[in-house]
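ESCALATION

Customer reports they have been waiting on this structure for their group meeting. Please prioritize. Original submission:
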Amino acid sequence: MPTQISNVGVYVEEVPSGVRTIMGTSTSVAAFIGQLCPRPLCPHPMHTTSTRFLLDLGVLDRSTLAVHAVHVTPDDVRVLKEKGCSVVLCPRSNDRLFVGSAPHKLLKSAGLSLALGTDSLASNDSLFLWDELRYL
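Update from on-call: job pushed to the front of the queue and completed.
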């Protein structure tokens, strides 16, 4: 009987170097994920997107909050919508960390549920949502 993964919290890096890690290099993040979840239980994290990796793990569903979603592809957006995921946008944090911005128009046009977040005080001046709204 196959092992089922449930109640999993996964952090997938939102910085460009983290995307490169998952997309095709053998750096420490990819190696670490491989050690935590050995094959065949888990797919290899290289040569894929964060969304596709999580889809292959079977952890995307209506309870999933994709926070930031800065480096999603159109196919990732389709997958998130099909699985009923929601997206939390953190525009001030993304701006201050120079990681880019989420394709909010694409996410909205796909019909994904969108929410606004502040991330943390490590990458933001406040945790006040009104400040986030003013930034928009």
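Sent to customer with the following note: The helical segments are 16-24, 28-36, 50-57, 74-82, 91-97, 104-109, 129-135.
Escalation resolved.
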